[in-house]
Amino acid sequence: MSLLTIENFINNEHVKPSEGSYFDTFEPARGVAHALIPNSSKADVELAYKAASAAFPSWSKTSREERAKILYRIADLIEARLEEFAQAESKDQGKPVELAKTVDIPRAASNFRFFAGRILHAVEEAGELAGIGFSYTQRMPIGVAGLISPWNLPLYLLTWKIAPCIASGNTAVCKPSEFTSLTAYMLCSVLKEAGLPAGVVNMVFGTGMGAGQAIVEHPRIPLISFTGGTVTGAKIIANSAPHFKKLSLELGGKNANIVFADCDFELALKTSVRSSFANQGEICLCGSRIFVQRPIYEKFLSGLVQGAKALKVGDPTLKDTDLGAVVSKEHWEKIVGYIELGKKEGGTIECGGQKPASLEVEFQDGYFLEPTIISGLTPNCRVMREEIFGPVVTIYAFDTEEEAIQLANDSEYGLSCSVWTENGRRARRVASEIQAGTVWVNTWMARDLRMPFGGMKKSGLGREGGDHSLDFYSELKTICLAD
Ligand code: NAD
User: Which residue positions are annotated as catalytic (predicted)?
Assistant: First the structure.
């Protein structure tokens, strides 16, 4: 079978990598190679940088109306190709097509639409300065941005960077994850068709250590927006430090899901099944540490096990599939390694832990894993502290509100948290004590694009969303005019 060959996208043209080398990318559901990815080098990043740099003077002076018009067109074109994008995202990443169709791809379109609207309606600050005159602010586009994204929500997270970056008048060199390049490649033709001028968005495919690091170390790329693992985030801080780059880092998590005895039990249970296992647990916001108040612990655990066992794992193209395959063989092995560690650490596997026995022949080499619940671990076990990023959750009983807060905050991460209670005062008290960038009360994954998004502690640096994104992608200047 001949494999699809992906090319870099520089100056609105598809180009081969300068050293001409490619590597295979695999279809997680079948465990077979399905495309060739350019193994781009420093030279390719330089070509992309030159294109982005040449496009910057004109794009940064393009009116906000014109920029918004193009962003709206991009959104429309993504939506018009919803089915095609969803099929590709599923084939490349392993997730159910239905999830890509209802979450990933629509959200990619709304990222462009949201920032188109945001720049159209943005008003700068201004005010009289008594006895002197008048001050106002101006947002200046910065230049060429480096945008580096992960594999779990490929198009969704890449467009969360591209949209505010170009809406603010910058140009970009993007590096999608080497595991999931397909929808980023498809996006290139959408950008061109929507009328985005050549060089405004350039896509360089390849590895983190190759193309990714070359972007981070490029002396004339002054800002880097990165979403990915915490260890990589630390390398990016170190490698960009000599250049004083502006950094936005969205990193890993080990999110708590706190269930109080006074919650709406059915809603908490149903949502916890989703927040544990959606996208095979490969969402940075999944609630992987479940803390349940003792009076309802046994009932909740049994409901959760029942809910997990009822999830259908397999063919990602079927409408009723809940979990597809995890992204790669290495990742599958890492997750299974954590399940084994959980057993060694004294945990009980309440359900899952295996590759499903019922897979059809064509999926038997795929990277599937049953939803797994581990009980009996203590909070200092590695499985309860380290990010697994797969369909594996731990469950633990607590007694008091103070203990729940302490357990949730006892982590080096601080990305998100869910709190389940019908007591409004408790909800406010707990939410205000939790050390996480986002706290949901009686819900999960509700995203308001106007609100800041980001992590505390080792979950990240900075906030994106609404004007926080515009702040990152522009330099804010104060101009004072004397009378
Ligand atoms: P990763 O850190 O391995 O890779 C992310 C991206 O960085 C990829 O494009 C990779 O090629 C590139 N990269 C790797 N090393 C690099 C280097 N030295 N210099 C520059 N670029 C480099 O992460 P991943 O495995 O793709 O994604 C999973 C991680 O992402 C998890 O930890 C997850 O929690 C996190 N994540 C966080 C958020 C968030 O919003 N906080 C969202 C999604 C995923």
Answer: 250
pTM of the model: 0.98
Q: Which amino acid is at 460?
A: G
Substitution candidate for ligand 1 out of 41, 95, 148, 289 with most atoms within 8 A of CB:
148
Q: In the beta sheet, which residues pair with residue 138?
A: 477
Task: Give the residue among 177, 191, 158, 176 at the shortest CA–CA distance from 81.
Answer: 191
What is the number of the ligand 1 atom nearest to the C-alpha of 327? 25
* Ligand 1 site, CB within 6 A: 148-152, 157, 175, 177-178, 207-209, 212-213, 216, 227-229, 232, 235-236, 250-253, 284, 387, 389, 415, 455, 459-460
Q: Are residues 186 and 325 in the same domain?
A: no
Strand partners, 416: 438
Closest-CA residue to 110 (of 72, 82, 84, 147):
72
Tokens 């590096």 belong to 175
C-alpha 204 to ligand 1 mean position (Å)? 16
Residues 236 and 324 in one domain: no
Give yes or no: 250 in active site: yes
* 198/91 same-domain check: yes
pLDDT digits (tens, 9 = 90+) for 334-343: 999 999 999 9
Tell me which of 250, 282, 370, 387 is the catalytic residue. Answer: 250
ipTM of the complex: 0.98
pLDDT tens, position by position, 262-307: 999 999 999 999 999 999 999 999 999 999 999 999 999 999 999 9
Do 206 and 300 sit in the same domain of this protein?
A: no
| Residue of minimum CA distance from atom 8 in ligand 1 | 177
Query: Distance from the CA of 137 to the center of ligand 1, in angstroms?
Result: 34
Which pair of tokens denotes residue 339? 């399940």
233 and 308 co-located in one domain: no
Q: Phi/psi of residue 194, each to 5°?
A: -75, -5
Spell out the alpha helix ranges (H) of 8-135. Answer: 42-61, 64-80, 82-93, 97-99, 105-121
Q: Ligand 1 centroid vs 161 CA: distance in angstroms?
A: 14
**Do 444 and 467 reside in the same domain of the chain?**
no
